Amino acid sequence: MTRLFHLMMTAPSATFTQTKPTETVAPVSLKTANVHNKSSLVSKATPAVYDWDTFKFAPIRESQVSRAMTKRYFADLDKYAESDVVIVGAGSAGLSAAYVLAKARPDLKIAIIESNVAVGGGCFLGGQLFSAMVLRKPADQFIEDLGLEYEDEGNFIVVKHAALFITTLCSKVLALPNVKLFNATCVEDLITRKDAAGATRIAGVVTNWTLVSMHHDDQSCMDPNTINSKVIISCTGHDGPMGAFCVKRLASLGLLKRNAMGALDMNKAEDAIVKNTREVFPGLICAGMELSECDSHNRMGPTFGAMVLSGVKAAEEALKVYDLRKKQDLEDMC
Ligand SMILES: Cc1cc2nc3c(=O)[nH]c(=O)nc-3n(C[C@H](O)[C@H](O)[C@H](O)COP(=O)(O)OP(=O)(O)OC[C@H]3O[C@@H](n4cnc5c(N)ncnc54)[C@H](O)[C@@H]3O)c2cc1C
C-alpha cells in the first residue's frame, strides 16, 4: 500500500459514514422535519412518509433562489482564485487524485476544473459501451475504501457498472469541505513564471466557461479568468477537442516534447502509466490517459485500475513538490 493511500485509509472518515439500507424509518411530518439536521428523519424518508393530500412546498421568492446560488458561487470563485492544488479534469484519474489528496490534507484548498457539465470523463461505461468496470489488483483496495461491492475474479475485480464507481467517487469528493468543483468550465491556457535563473514553471490556470471557449472562433475578445495555484494536476484524458490539454499546450510552447499514445498492451500500459505519473514539468503533474499522450505509453483498453492508482500517485507526487512550489510562489510576489 502506498504511503498516501495508507494515510487516507487510516484518516478519520466521519464524512463517509454509511447508513444501513435496511434501517426502518418511522413516518415523519413535513411540519416537524428539520432539513438542516443531517440526522433528521426527513433525510432518510421514503415517498411513503409524505401526505400528498396536504402536500405543499415551503414558499419562496425567485430572487432568493438566484441569490442562494450566486452568492455561493462568487464566494467560491473568490476563495479558490488562490488555490493550493488545481486538478484539471474530473474523470477517474482526476477524481481519484482529489479524493486521496483532499482527505489526507484537509488544510489544502483544491479546485477541480471540468470542461463538461457532467463529471466522470470516460468512466460512465466500461469498454465498447458495456456497463461493467474491470480493475486489476491491487486497485481493489481503492474500491474497498469507497465501500463499493464487487465481484472478485482472482487477479481482477468487477464493479457491476462503471457509473456506480464514478458517481460514488464523485459524491465522496464533493462532500469534502476543502474541494470545489467548477464544472462547465475549462482550462484554456496555463500561467507560467520564470525564476531568476530563467527556469519556467507552471503557476496556475487560465479558465473560461466551456461554452465561451468553444466560440473563440466566431465571437471576438472573450477574455478568460485565472486561478493561481502552487501545483496543477492535469488529468484531461486522451487527445480530442479538449483532451490531453496541458500536455498539448506545453508542447505548443516548446516546453515539452510530446509523443502520441501507443497501441494497446494491457500488461505493459497500466504499470507504465502508474509508475510514470509524475511532475512532467515544474508545477504540473500529469496523470491518467493524458500521460500516455505525453510519454507515448501503450493504451490499456477497458481496465481502469491504472486510472485510479495514477490518481493516487498524482496526489503523492503533488505533496512531494508542494512545499518547494509554495516557496517559489511566495518568492514571485517579493
Ligand atoms: C480514442 C480513445 C481511446 C481510449 N483508450 C482507452 C484505453 O486504452 N484505456 C482506457 O482505460 N481507456 C481508454 N479510453 C476511455 C477513457 O478515455 C479512459 O478510460 C478514462 O476515462 C481515462 O481517464 P482519465 O481520468 O485519464 O480521463 P477522462 O476520463 O477522459 O477524463 C478527462 C476529463 O477531463 C476533462 N477535460 C478535458 N480537457 C479539459 C480542459 N481543458 N479543461 C477542463 N477539463 C478538461 C474532460 O471533460 C473529462 O471529463 C479511450 C477513449 C478514447 C476516446
TrEMBL record:
GO CC terms in record: cytosol; nucleus
Assembly, per entry: Homooctamer.
Location(s) in or outside the cell: Cytoplasm; Nucleus
InterPro entries noted in UniProt: FAD/NAD-bd_sf, Sti35, Thi4_fam
Keyword Repeat recorded: no
UniProt similarity note: Belongs to the THI4 family.
EC number(s) stated in the UniProt entry for this protein: 2.4.2.60
Cofactor binding note from Swiss-Prot or TrEMBL: Binds 1 Fe cation per subunit.
Gene behind the chain: THI4
First-tier enzyme category under EC: transferase
Gene3D superfamilies with a match to the protein in the record: 6.10.250.2840, FAD/NAD(P)-binding domain
GO BP annotations, alphabetical order: thiamine biosynthetic process; thiazole biosynthetic process
PTM info: During the catalytic reaction, a sulfide is transferred from Cys-221 to a reaction intermediate, generating a dehydroalanine residue.
Pfam families the record matches: Thi4
Keywords, comma-separated and alphabetical: Cytoplasm, Iron, Metal-binding, NAD, Nucleus, Thiamine biosynthesis, Transferase
Cofactors: Fe cation
Protein name listed in UniProt: Thiamine thiazole synthase
Residue positions binding substrate: A93, E114, S115, G122, V187, D223, H238, M289, R299, M300, G301
